[in-house]
Amino acid sequence: MAKLVIVRHGQSQANRDNIFTGWTDVPLTEKGIEQGQMVGDELARMGIQFDDAHTSYMSRAIKTMNIILERIDQLYIPVHKTWRLNERHYGALSGLNKSKVKEEVGADQLHRWRRGYSEVPPKLKHRQHDRRYDRLGVKMPYSESLAMTQKRLLPYWEDQIAPRLMDGKNQLIVAHGSSLRALIKYLDQIPDDQIDQVEVPNGKPILYEFDPALNITKKTFITMDGEENGNS
């Protein structure tokens, strides 16, 4: 029985300030650091021993991962970083205040951009470049829908995470709200028109348990007070 824990990074400054971030690096807040510590303490209490950890190329996820691994005394396990777990790219919305965008385009349009499956936010006029992606030969998107995020995430799941789970190895993923929503949609087989109801809060772990055929046997929303709310 293999276990998978997925965690959205702790609160970032952009989360606090209600700003679209996407592939832009922003630091964690003090609250975000504390959230990472609380997740680590709870996972330590649960006694889960991980074989691998996976995170994105974004510093807010990497730092949250490091905090968690330190709190569970598992800094020694392999950590795999991949751009495929990055937050979705919000295109021309990146850096804008969500409340101001809502005033300009309306609540319905904002909701479709933020929570819809196939809706693509306004695209950048010029492609951005960043050495961390240029060195991989990866072209940064002009903008991404959740569907596009899922499409670039799933090959990593299929090649790097799923085989390890099938071998009975526990895995930890620390990533982002949209990339984790895309993964949850796939794992839970959520219809396109219902994914807008799924939220992934900062620092709230979800535990999946799988049989050797990678069928989900249990899904648990881990709380920070020692109690677990689960459904199988």
From TrEMBL:
Substrate binds at residues 8-15, 21-22, 60, 87-90, 98, 114-115. Gene3D superfamilies: Phosphoglycerate mutase-like. Its EC number is 5.4.2.11. Transmembrane segments: none annotated. The keyword Ubl conjugation does not apply. The active site is at H9, E87. Signal peptide: none annotated. The keyword Isomerase applies. Keywords: Gluconeogenesis, Glycolysis, Isomerase. The record marks H176 as: Transition state stabilizer. One of its GO terms (molecular function) is phosphoglycerate mutase activity. InterPro entries: His_Pase_superF_clade-1, His_PPase_superfam, PG/BPGM_mutase_AS, Phosphogly_mut1. Belongs to the phosphoglycerate mutase family. BPG-dependent PGAM subfamily. Catalyzes the interconversion of 2-phosphoglycerate and 3-phosphoglycerate. This is 2,3-bisphosphoglycerate-dependent phosphoglycerate mutase. It comes from Limosilactobacillus vaginalis. The lineage of its organism: Bacteria, Bacillati, Bacillota, Bacilli, Lactobacillales. The gene is gpmA.
